[in-house]
Amino acid sequence: MLEIEDLHVKIGDREVLHDIDLTIREGETHVLMGPNGSGKTTLLRAIMGFSGLEVTKGTIRFKGKDITGMPIHERAKMGIGMLFQRPPTVSGLKLGKLLAVTSGDRAGMVSEYARFLHMDGFMDRAINLGFSGGEIKRSEVLQLMVQQPDFVMLDEPESGVDLENITLIGNAIARLLEKDVHIVNRKKSGLVITHTGYILDYLDADFGHVMCDGVFRCHGNPREILKVIKTSGYKECLACQKI
Amino acid sequence: MPEDLGKMSELSPEDREKLTLTGLEVEMKNREGSFFQVDQEIRQWTSLNEGIEVLPIHEALRKYDWLSAYSWNLVKGDKDQYTKYVADQPEPRGFVIIARKGSKTIYPLQACLFLARSPVQHVHNIIIAEEGAELHIISGCASASYTKTGSHIGVTEFYVGKGARVTSTMIHNWGEEISVFPRSAARVEEDGVFISNYVCMQPVRKVQMAPFVELAGRNAVALFSSIVVCTPGSNMDLGSVARLTAEGSSAELVTRAITTGGTIISRGMIEGVSRHTKGHIECRGLILRDGVIHAIPEIKGNVVDTELSHEAAVGKIARDEIEYLMSRGLDEDVATATIIRGFLDVKIAGLPNALQAQIDAAIDAAERSGF
Ligand SMILES: Nc1ncnc2c1ncn2[C@@H]1O[C@H](COP(=O)(O)OP(=O)(O)OP(=O)(O)O)[C@@H](O)[C@H]1O
Ligand SMILES: [Mg+2]
Description:
The complex is a heterodimer.
Chain A: E1 2-11, E2 14-24, E3 29-33, H1 40-48, E4 54-62, E5 65-66, H2 72-78, E6 80-83, E7 90-94, H3 95-103, H4 110-116, E8 126-127, H5 133-147, E9 151-155, H6 163-176, E10 189-193, H7 200-203, E11 207-212, E12 215-220, H8 222-232, H9 235-239
Parallel strand pairs in A: 3-10, 3-11, 6-9, 9-10
Antiparallel strand pairs in A: 1-2, 1-4, 4-5, 7-8, 11-12
Helix pairs in contact in A: 3-5, 5-6
Chain B: H1 6-9, H2 13-21, E1 33-38, E2 41-47, E3 52-56, H3 57-63, H4 81-87, E4 95-99, E5 109-115, E6 120-129, E7 134-143, E8 149-160, E9 165-173, E10 177-188, E11 193-200, E12 206-209, E13 212-215, E14 221-230, E15 235-244, E16 250-259, E17 263-272, E18 277-287, E19 292-301, E20 306-315, H5 319-326, H6 332-344, H7 353-368
Parallel strand pairs in B: 1-5, 4-6, 5-7, 6-8, 7-9, 8-10, 9-11, 10-12, 10-13, 11-14, 12-15, 13-15, 14-16, 15-17, 16-18, 17-19, 18-20
Antiparallel strand pairs in B: 1-2, 3-4
Bound molecules: adenosine-5'-triphosphate and magnesium ion.
């Protein structure tokens, strides 16, 4: 589904990501962990194709196609979707209006998804304007449900979300990633950034990666990795010579 | 249906379309009255509401002696060269609408002012809403497709009585070489509400206006909204002036301005003369292509306990907002247009749905033509 090879990304004059290799196959969910400022969000933004960063080396392939220089909306159309850690406020634009524009032939599903995420009261609100932390995440998940991407990138979906809403969001994301479909038939893939790991209770992630200072320091079982980080912090990863 | 409505259907399909964009219902659907003037010729007038009278001004002045006290009272004839021009006309044209005490309109009355062959169209309108009346007016102003140059000068005096509610929505659809000089003033009595909306999404040589409202009675409220798109070659000098004369009165002036190459001056002035008054000016501008947006908000407080504020912002659409929508699958042009549409989407509290829909339709039309 996604193959990243030798990716180097610069922001301004500084290289933020170095030498990134990552392969995510159909049906797999990967977890990305790492300390603040290590480059996790930057990687997702590079995959989505945002401006403000420059891919100086390497390639990103999606569904077999080199998308490294492709405009954002074409990547979205190919099936890449992203939940933003901090989405911008689009004042004036109503959430309902955006969903109407993006839903296409799923227009009939919008209100069901909105009810599911308890967002039905937000359709006439300007996107993210005055939304609470948890409401922003629910709005993001709702937009993704309407979009139904094949490859879902989630940038800290549970941060700032209360326990009840984590269940709600976790179940919605599980639906997005077809966790109810048998692994053999599952088509949707995911890349999830998390600091707490709470979201993993809903997702059964297949692989974990630890990023420090713009490079991968570790690949492995996400639960094991999380356990190490929880007990001894990232210094263990930094000291680790396994990679 | 009154037969004289046929007059409006006499227009060419192209001009009917132009008028429809200004909110005029040629078929009178969802309208409670109408007035139709082409150049200086009044073609038709009617009211379907018993409590509301619609008359040409010269007939109204003949019919009601008392009306002269309302004429050239809020707008002075010698205010400037334009009011002078209208005041000097031996044969005044325009409309008078009188909403009797307690009368209510659900649907708006429409006034259509159409510039066809005259070099200048002048109108003088008087609108009186008596105590407790509720009156909604939509004025559509347009020029014929074949009219290349000309001027429109419109003087309007609004009297909003005690507890009355008046909404006035003006949608302009002129041509590139037409100049327009509306001169209007309103007086709002105790507990009265005056809502005035101005929408211009189409090219015009020049529009210059600064409607004035005096909040003369306790707790009177005024809300002015302007939503404009200024194309290359257009010059819009728009302002509203509110004087908070009575205690407890309030005013809000809201502007959404987009330039795609033209020049917009957005003035606003609120003066707090009495205690417990409130005023706010909000002007937001988007420069889509090189052009000018010059916001000049002014507030002046004369007493303790008047609360006045203004906010103005002029800029461009943020790149991260465009890319956010692109990441949901919209291409750059659609993402940009969607954000602009949202920017112009001002929901005006207290405006009947039919009128909000009309404003939305005018913006939709501009959106379809790619601003
Ligand atoms: N626009 C920018 N200008 C300058 N530096 C930037 C910019 N965007 C990101 N960076 C820097 O790049 C580095 C990586 O940032 P990134 O947001 O990818 O971190 P992260 O791993 O997602 O962190 P967190 O866990 O805090 O979200 C940081 O040092 C950050 O300050
Ligand atoms: Mg981040």
